[in-house]
Design goal:
The chain is α+β, with helices and mostly antiparallel strands. It has eight helices and 20 strands. Helix 2 packs across helix 3 and helix 2 runs parallel beside helix 4.
Length: about 375
C-alpha cells in the first residue's frame, strides 16, 4: 500500500548554509491492512517521514507511492498536494476547530475541497464514524467542552469519515494520561483491524509500538536501522542502539577468544561468555555481548553461561522483581518472578543460555 524509496530531506537551520539531514535514504514498505509503526527518539526522522507521506513536507529526493499512485517523484516531476492524496491524518494536537461542534468537525472535510461528497453521503459517513467512536451522544457539543480522550476520538472520527486508503497518525495519544492511553491503544488497534485500514503510526514509546504494531521500523538520526515484526526486532536487534531502544539490555564489552561455528567464546569483565551467532567474528576482535534482564536465571544447565554477582538493589513491580547486580567491574539488571525473592548484598550466581546472548561488533 505504501512504497518509499531512497527518501532524503535536509533542513537549513537559521541562517546556516550547512544542511542538517532530517531523513536519509529511507526505504519502507507497508502492506495493505498493516498497522506500521515508526519508532524512534525525538529527532530520529519519524515525523518527517510521516509528513512526507502526507505531502506536508517536500523531500529533496526519492519517491513515495500510495497504492498504485505515485504521489512524489522529482525525477518524474510528480508532487500531489496533500488533499489529493488518499490519506487521513490525526495530529498530536488533534487540530480540531474549537468553535465547531463535534458533528461540524467531522463533516467539514467532506463539505470542502476536492474530497467533498454530496449531503446524503456526508451524513452517512459522519454517522458511521461517530458510531464507531461512540460519539453519537456528543454530536451537538462543542469540541472545546470535551475531555482530551473525547477530542482524540473526534479527530480520529474526522479522519475515518474520509474513508482514506491510508490513515497517518502522529503520536495521537501522547497528550493523554497513562491509564487513558493504555485503554485507547487497545480501542484504536481493534478499530483499525475491524475496518481493515492501513495505518502508519509515529511514536517514541516502545511499549505503545509493541502493543499495536504488525510491523515496526526503528529510526535514529534520520535513518531506518531495522524494520520487521515486533518479535524479530526484540529478539534479533540489528545493533546495540536498536537492542537498547526496544527494551532493557545488559551489555558487556569483550574480546573474542575462540571463534567456532556457531559458538564463539568472549572474554568479558564478568568472565567468559559463550554465544551462538550466525555472524562471523575473528579471534582478537572487540565485540559487545548483550542479554536481556528477563533471560537471566538463578538456576541453569552445564552448558549455560554462569556468573557470580551480588545484589545491589531491588524494586518490586507487582508481577516481578527488578534487581541491580554488581558483577566484577560491571553493573547488570535482572528480572525475576515475584516468587524468587533476593535481598541486598545476597551473593547470587546467575545463568544465561548461549542462544540468548547477542553479539555485536564493537565499533568504538
Amino acid at each position: 500500500m505504501i512504497r518509499i524509496r531512497a527518501l532524503d530531506k535536509k533542513y537549513y537551520p537559521g541562517n546556516s548554509s550547512e544542511p542538517v539531514p532530517a531523513i536519509s535514504q529511507v526505504n519502507i514498505d507497508v502492506a495493505e491492512g498493516e498497522f506500521f509503526v515508526l519508532l524512534g527518539p525525538s529527532g530520529s526522522g519519524k515525523t518527517t517521514t510521516l509528513r512526507s507521506i502526507a505531502g506536508l513536507e517536500i523531500p529533496d529526493s526519492g519517491s513515495i507511492a500510495i497504492g498504485d499512485v505515485l504521489v512524489f517523484s522529482p525525477q518524474d516531476r510528480i508532487l500531489l498536494r496533500p488533499e489529493a492524496r488518499p490519506i487521513g491524518m490525526v495530529f498530536q494536537s488533534y487540530a480540531l476547530w474549537p468553535h465547531m461542534t463535534v458533528w461540524e468537525n467531522v463533516v467539514f472535510p467532506l463539505k470542502a475541497g476536492i474530497r467533498r461528497v454530496d449531503p446524503e453521503e456526508r451524513k452517512r459517513r459522519a454517522r458511521k464514524a461517530l458510531d464507531l467512536l461512540r460519539l453519537q451522544d456528543y454530536a451537538d457539543r462543542s469540541v472545546s467542552a470535551l475531555s482530551g480522550g473525547q477530542q482524540q476520538r473526534v479527530a480520529l472520527a474526522r479522519a475515518i469519515a474520509l474513508e482514506p486508503a491510508v490513515l497517518l497518525m502522529d503520536e495521537p495519544l501522547s497528550n493523554l494520561d497513562a491509564r487513558l492511553r493504555a485503554s485507547l491503544r487497545v480501542e484504536l488497534k481493534e478499530l483499525t483491524d475491524e475496518l481493515g485500514m492501513t495505518v502508519v503510526y509515529v511514536t517514541h514509546d516502545q511499549h505503545e509500538a509493541f502493543m499495536m504494531a504488525d510491523k515496526v521500523a526503528v529510526m535514529s538520526h534520520g535513518k531506518v536501522l531495522q524494520q520487521g515484526t515486533v518479535q524479530e526486532i526484540y529478539d534479533h536487534p540489528s545493533d546495540p542502539f536498536v537492542a537498547r531502544f526496544v527494551g532493557e539490555m545488559n551489555f558487556l564489552h569483550g574480546v573474542v577468544q575462540r571463534a567456532g561455528d556457531p559458538t564463539i567464546e568472549i572474554a568479558t569483565s564478568c568472565g567468559n561468555v559463550r554465544a551462538h551467532t550466525a555472524e562471523r567474528f575473528g579471534v582478537g576482535q572487540s565485540v559487545i555481548v548483550g542479554f536481556r534482564p528477563e533471560d537471566m536465571r538463578t538456576t541453569g544447565g552445564a552448558d549455560d553461561n554462569s556468573f557470580a554477582s551480588s545484589v545491589v538493589s531491588s524494586a518490586y513491580l507487582g508481577s516481578e522483581y527488578v534487581y541491580k547486580l554488581a558483577c566484577e567491574r560491571g553493573a547488570l539488571s535482572m528480572r525475576l518472578g515475584k516468587d524468587e525473592r533476593l535481598v541486598r548484598d545476597d551473593h547470587v550466581r546467575f545463568f544465561v543460555r548461549r542462544d540468548r546472548c547477542l553479539v555485536f561488533p564493537d565499533t568504538h
